[in-house]
Amino acid sequence: LNHQINQMANRLENTLARLNEDKIFLKDTISDISHQLKTPLSSLIMLNELLMEDEKMEDKTRKKFLEKTKAQLDRMEWLIVNLLKLARLEAGAIEFKREKVFFRDMVDTSMNLLEPQLEGQNVKVGGNHEAFFYGDRDWTEEALINILKNATEYSKGEIEIKLEDTPIFSSIKIRDNGPGINEKDLPHIFERFYKSSSQLKPDSIGIGLNLAKLIVESQEGSLSVRSKKDMGTEFTLTFLKR
Questions:
Q1: How far is CA 58 from CA 51, 62, 72, 214, in A?
Q2: Chain-centroid distance, C-alpha 235
Q3: What global pTM score does this model have?
Q4: Orientation angle between helical segments 103-113 and 137-154, nearest 10 degrees
Q5: Which stretch of DSSP H or E encloses residue 140?
Q6: What is the mean pLDDT of residues 7-31?
Q7: Which residues contact 6 (CB under 8 A, 6 or more apart)?
Q8: In whole angstroms, what is the distance from residue 200 CA to residue 77 CA?
């Protein structure tokens, strides 16, 4: 009887601990969304007031304000969608597929989707084009797009993508020839909302790399980064062959 009572007490303690963790997780997620929406929402309110107050506003100026409004709405939509994805990943609510995925197919799709950002970039794809892994193509493709997008923002015109395949693992290396990452910023590059001291894009939110890392690690893969100041940055996605 004493043993059964102890077991019941342990189960109740574990249940309460999980409920408390869920409560904290929900609170943090709502706090993140609220904090990140504050700035674009303030901009939308200001732009809307200007549009309503000035009835004689020139069409050219009105169109400019409407374009700014659309940009803020697009930013808010992207932010909410990606924060909810992060929340689902952290809560373990995503069931990843286990299918054979060829890296080259993912690279081609990602490059097509990022065609406007890749304009003017010299992108080289090399290595083993038959490299593959077992996982979820759609989610991994999203991680790859976030990493490639980061490379386009910091590259000075050259991006190299190398596909590797061995009996033990498969990997994608994405290297740019940009300014690199400061040594003190490197350990924090995958943290949510982190902005480096040498941030080139002040409007960057800082969740793309965090999302990419969560997607890769949720499939028992790894995402690492190497960088030196003024010598570019290299991200590596690695999946063990099973």
A1: 10, 6, 21, 47
A2: 13
A3: 0.73
A4: 50
A5: helix 137-154
A6: 71
A7: none
A8: 23
